[in-house]
Amino acid sequence: MKEQDPKLIKKRFLKELKDVKTSEEKKKICKKYLEEDLSSVFSSFKNLPAAEKARVGRGANELKQLLLTKMEMVKETEKEETGWLDVTLPGKEPILGNIHPLTQMQKKCEDIFSKMGFVTIEGPELENEWYNFDALNVKEDHPAREMQDTLFVKQKGREGLTSKEKLLMRTQTSAVQVRYMEKNKPPLRVIVPGRVFRNEATDNSHEINFYQLEGLMVGEDVSVANFKAIIGSFFQNLFATDVEIRLRPSYFPFTEPSFEVDVSCSICKKKGCSACQRTGWIEVMGAGMVHPNVLQSAKIDTSKFTGFAFGGGVDRLAMIKHEINDIRLFYGGDLRFLKQF
Ligand SMILES: [Zn+2]
Questions:
Q1: Model confidence pLDDT, tens digit, residues 144-190
Q2: CA 135 to chain CA mean position, Å
Q3: Distance from the CA of 105 to the center of ligand 1, in angstroms?
Q4: Residue 241 Cα, ligand 1 centroid: separation in angstroms?
């Protein structure tokens, strides 16, 4: 004859459940109590004296509830343990991300240049002072080398370090071009996309880091005319519309002659609008013929080879193309912004 008092059964059940470890064992115990002990209470119910019926009935119902709850809990734990999957549950729609607008722009640039024979190369973001400045003909006293423009890395005993030992976060990707020229002989056609760092206050057109895209072509008889043709073709493809290119004289330590590159405003077709500040032209990059000192740093024969180099911000290109008015939006991580691309 089985125990008929729900209270005592409950006590025994909880003790048995506590004594076992695995979900499998716990499930067995719950099942046994539901099928045997509880059923036995219910089947003997009709023989009870009337006075007892109410008490036992209430107890039996409470016990049933407890057993079912425990059974569910064990099943849940088991699911977590075994990764059990209920294939009948309705599916959850996966949230698909999209590619960041800067990455999209970088890939687009790489695609266009690769069709013109340019190879994409990469280099370290933590650079030494020699590659970042000296090899690029940026003299010791150039303001860009001062602390306010460049993020230098603290190094113990920095006093005695040579420029090849002093570390900094690269301020442009040109260093990679020098590294590449050291290891490869002309003719060369490369583009260098990558993240660069500046020590500056942020506003709607400045960030402490941004993405740059630089390019280099070195060979015999490479001239400004080659540059203008290639860069013109690049912008036609990038903006998918007819754009004009304008070169204005400028100064960079690593090129001679140097120029700023403007493209005609594709929004107003040179009539003047807010995007081009009513000038009809938008400044997009700096460029020039590679300075002989830079070629010599990379041990390239300057009597035989010439080359051009150019560099601009990927952020800036994306801002022009998508008419974005604040560079900080790219780095804010705001999905409402990022999902638009
Ligand atoms: Zn315009």
A1: 676 558 888 888 876 778 888 888 899 989 889 888 888 898 999 99
A2: 30
A3: 21
A4: 14
CB 167 within 8 A of CB 151: no
The token duo for 227 is: 């540059």
Report the phi/psi class of residue 221: left, alpha or beta, with left for phi > 0 and alpha for psi in -120 to 50: left
DSSP β-ladder status, 119-120 and 188-197: parallel
DSSP 171: S
- Rounded to whole angstroms, the Cα distance separating 190 from 212 reads 14
CB atoms inside a 10 Å sphere around CB 199: 15
Question: How far apart (Å, rounded) are the C-alpha atoms in residues 118 and 307?
Answer: 14
- CA 280 to ligand 1 center in whole angstroms: 5
Collect all residues with Cβ–Cβ distance below 8 Å to 319 and sequence separation of at least 6: 325, 327
Beta strands 306-313 and 119-120 are: unpaired
pLDDT digits (tens, 9 = 90+) for 272-310: 887 788 899 988 899 999 999 889 888 899 999 999 999
* The residue to which tokens 């046994």 are assigned: 32
CA distance 145 to 110: 30
Contact by Cβ (8 Å): 300, 181: yes
What is Dmax (Cα atoms) for the chain? Answer: 117
Which amino acid is residue 307, in one-letter code?
G
d(CA 82, CA 80): 6
What residues does 287 pair with on adjacent strands? 259, 310
**Residues around the ion ligand 1 (C-beta < 5 A):** 265, 267-268, 273, 275-276
Reading the block at residue 8, the tokens are 């005592």
Rounded distance between C-alpha atoms, residue 200 and residue 209, angstroms:
9
Q: How far apart are CA 267 and CA 283, in angstroms?
A: 14
